[in-house]
Amino acid sequence: MLELEAPEVIIASREERLALVAAHPSMDIFAFGLLIYEAVACKGRLFPTYKEAVGAATAPGELEIDFGRCRDHVVRYIVSNMLRKVPSDRFTIRDVLVNLSQVRSLK
Fold this sequence. Notes:
Blueprint: H1 7-14, H2 25-41, H3 50-58, H4 73-82, H5 93-100
Helix pairs in contact: 1-3, 2-4, 4-5
């Protein structure tokens, strides 16, 4: 189970307006980005605790992502764009697929 929801879900939950959040494909992109991150960074979860995730989601600016041993710049680019805080700034699934085709280790 993922320990970090999309930032918009965390913020809505904190403001007790979670019932007003509509499901959107960008939330799935964020979750998919977390899965790819965990697979390539070899560091486990992006944030060790939910409290740290909330702090990161509500802090100004983008998430700080430690890619650990992942040196593939294309993968880093893809994941960074999947884990954007603002939903409209995230990659679409088409963007993800087009860019994943450029990853050498997948060929």
